[in-house]
Design goal:
The complex is a heterodimer. Chain A is an alpha/beta fold. Chain A has one domain: Rossmann fold (3-Layer(aba) Sandwich), CATH 3.40.50.300. Chain A contains eight helices and ten strands. In chain A, the strands form two sheets. Chain A has a six-stranded mixed beta sheet with strand order 6-7-8-3-9-10, sandwiched between helices. A four-stranded antiparallel beta sheet of chain A has the order 2-1-4-5, with helices on one face. In chain A, helix 5 runs parallel beside helix 6. The longest helix of chain A is centred in the C-terminal third of the chain and has 16 residues. Chain A is globular and about 50 Å long. Chain B is of the alpha+beta class. Chain B has two domains: about 180 residues, no CATH class; about 180 residues, no CATH class. Chain B is about 55% helix and about 20% strand. A six-stranded mixed beta barrel of chain B has the order 4-5-10-7-9-8. Classes of the chains: A alpha/beta, B alpha+beta.
Chain lengths: ~250, ~400
């Protein structure tokens, strides 16, 4: 197997929170590597440190000690503005609750990250947003407002938004948490398709079923990596959808 | 980050909350509107007072007797007898800035016609007095040079006197009235002039040749005052100086000696009255300014609410690469846009109010360009000042907390 490029390299990472006089060790010595083209689930119960890990991976928070290299850039020495730039150019976020701007069209929601990149002119911004919406299959809904879209469609808009700046890694936080089974599968199908096209995806979930759609699982417990495993018997969403019972529409 | 993008973001954010934006602007609209309206109405009333005073006679300059010293005792102004007919002649001969000059002697008394009588005043003047005080003849004629020289018992009467002494059916011209027991033949009637700005009835008077009043009624040789009109309003200061120079020479006053007369101009009177009006304008403007301040605080209030309510949006913007400064600028631009748009609407609103008010009150409508420019600048300043703190609060949010905020 050819050596792929390392996108995420975390070494000896620690994160402590101080709540009054109590120190909470959210992460205690975490080492991990994620290569280009991987599709990794970060799992764990609440309080396991997976959210803290995601915050640091997303450059929203800085570790107490240790190093995190994102696409060859060491983030621990960066200031707030440099981190914002890093998020703008190298990262894509997907949230459990979609986080779309209300009363704003799908297209404008997708354009949002590019507004914070002064190098991109309005024409290019529009084209890239349209292209991203096309990738998630919502080209015909670009002028719809979030409240005119179903949950699945809203999450697709959010995915398009995470793709629009062509990030080196997409970070998804419980991205199917608010969706029913069928829609979850449809979203996972989209993720698998994007991964097949070469996108690196890190997916935080506490559902083992969802984690089986990915290639590799990393389980956190008490601030440490408890278990790391390559997924055997990987699920493929496109096949599962075919086997779902056809819903009878009630009128 | 470029400002085009930030402005677009800010405009879109305001559009998403149209109703709230309009409500927020309302404070500024009312504030700016009332400032503009108050100043405009105040200035209108000032102009109206000015017009009324100048209707008494344009460019009027009065000469009144001044205090006089006799052996160390100061004499009061009213009894002074320092003005004489030779002063008038001197002024007529030498002055360049005076267009018309009339001596003035006046006395009050009862005017009688048959069984009717009316308390009024009889003022002795020359023919130029009508021009000076802007009186016009409705009927009849003004007295002639010959009548003045011969102490003729003729007079011109105002409308109030006519109404009180004569029946409507009778033409007063040619009739005779008695004043202080002396019969005066009416040779002219003045057009109605109405009340002066001080509430004086300008039609309640009898005008007679100054010689007649001086000698026949009052039996004096001096005159009580001199009414003149300067060639133009802006020359009235020169006219005052000229009168002083001529009269000082005429009265043989040495250098260092005080004037034994006083010169006052209409312009000075206008100043006195308009300074009151100016103060009123300032007071009204200040009160309106307070409402503008309240409007600004309203913006701050709403911006705070907006920051709290849009915490999640702020978190999202930060997570997709918005820096603190970008968030700060977005909220600042929103606040400034609110106040500037509110300001523009307020200016139009204020102009509309002042148009309605001035036409109702019969004031001239005065548009104060400075007030408009200043309130526009104040609005921008208010936007920055009151938008800064909420914007700073938004920029300082922790992206993690913000994005997970529910």
């Amino acid at each position: 197997m050819a050596m792929s490029k390392v996108i995420i390299k975390v070494s000896d990472l620690r994160k402590d929170y101080y709540i009054g006089e109590v120190t909470v060790h959210a992460l205690r010595k975490v080492d991990m590597e994620i290569n280009e083209g991987e599709f990794v689930a970060i799992m764990g119960a609440s309080g396991s440190g997976k959210s803290t890990m995601l915050n640091i991976l997303g450059c929203l928070d800085k570790p107490t000690s240790g190093e995190y290299m994102l696409d060859g850039v060491a983030m621990s020495k960066m200031n707030k503005n440099q981190l914002a730039l890093l998020r703008n150019q190298k990262l894509g976020f997907i949230f459990q609750s979609y986080n779309l701007l209300p009363r704003t069209t799908a297209l404008e929601n997708v354009e949002l990250p590019l507004y914070y990149n002064p190098k991109i002119k309005s024409k290019e911004r529009l084209e890239r947003a349209k292209h991203a919406l096309d990738l998630v299959g919502l080209a015909d809904r670009m002028h719809h407002m979030p409240n005119q879209l179903s949950g699945g469609q809203q999450q697709r808009v959010a995915i398009a938004r995470s793709l629009v700046n062509d990030p080196v890694v997409i970070l998804a936080d419980e991205a199917t948490g608010n969706l029913d089974t069928r829609t979850s599968y449809e979203i996972m199908e989209l993720f698998q398709k994007l991964n097949d096209q070469g996108k690196t995806i890190v997916f935080v979930t506490h559902e083992p079923d969802i984690a089986r759609f990915m290639k590799r699982n990393i389980v956190f417990r008490d601030g440490r990596i408890q278990k790391e495993s390559v997924v055997i018997n990987r699920l493929f969403a496109s096949e599962l959808i075919k086997n779902l019972p056809v819903e009878t529409e009630v009128i | 980050m470029n400002y085009t993008n930030l402005s677009k973001i800010a405009v879109n954010a305001l559009k998403r909350n149209k109703f709230r934006s309009i409500l927020t602007m309302l404070g500024i609209i009312i504030g700016v509107g009332s400032v503009i309206a108050m100043l405009s109405i105040g200035q209108g009333s000032k102009k109206s007072i000015q017009n009324q005073i100048s209707s008494m006679g344009s460019n009027l300059v009065f000469v009144m007797p001044g205090s006089q010293q006799r052996g160390g005792v100061m004499m009061g102004n009213s009894n002074a007898k320092t003005l004489t007919l030779s002063d008038v002649e001197k002024l007529q001969k030498e002055s360049q800035y005076l267009a018309a000059i009339s001596p003035q002697v006046s006395t009050s008394g009862q005017a009688v016609n048959g069984n009717k009588n009316w308390p009024t005043s009889c003022t002795g003047v020359n023919a130029e007095y009508l021009t000076i005080r802007k009186y016009e003849l409705e009927d009849g004629r003004i007295f002639t040079e010959k009548e003045i020289n011969s102490l003729a018992k003729v007079c011109i009467v105002g409308q109030t006197v006519v109404e009180n002494l004569f029946d409507k059916s009778i033409d007063p011209v040619g009739q005779t009235l008695r004043f202080s027991g002396i019969p005066f033949k009416i040779i002219g009637v003045l057009k109605e002039k109405g009340e002066s700005s001080m509430g004086q009835d300008q039609d309640d008077l009898i005008l007679a040749p100054y010689t007649s009043v001086q000698r026949r009624i009052l039996a004096i040789t001096h005159i009580q005052s001199i009414s003149t009109s300067a060639v133009s309003e802006d020359k009235s200061d020169e006219a005052i100086k000229e009168i002083e120079t001529i009269l000082r020479l005429e009265h043989n006053l040495k250098e260092g000696e005080a004037n034994d007369f006083q010169v006052r101009s209409q312009a000075e009177m206008i100043q006195t009255f308009t300074s009151v009006s100016d103060m009123l304008t300032m007071l009204l403007g200040a009160i309106a300014g307070i409402s503008l301040l309240v409007g600004g605080i309203g913006i701050m209030n709403i911006m705070f609410v907006s920051v709290t309510e849009r915490t999640k949006e702020i978190g999202l913007r930060m997570s997709v690469g918005g820096r603190g400064i970008d968030i700060l600028m977005q909220f600042l631009i929103e606040a400034v846009l609110l106040s500037i748009i509110g300001g523009i609407i307020g200016i139009l609103f204020g102009l509309a109010i002042s148009f309605v008010a001035t036409s109702l009150l019969n004031f001239p409508m005065i548009i104060m360009t400075e007030a408009i420019v200043v309130s526009f600048l104040v609005c921008s300043a208010i936007g920055i000042f009151f938008g800064w703190y909420p914007a700073k609060k938004a920029a300082n949010l922790n992206p993690i907390d913000a994005v997970r905020h529910e």
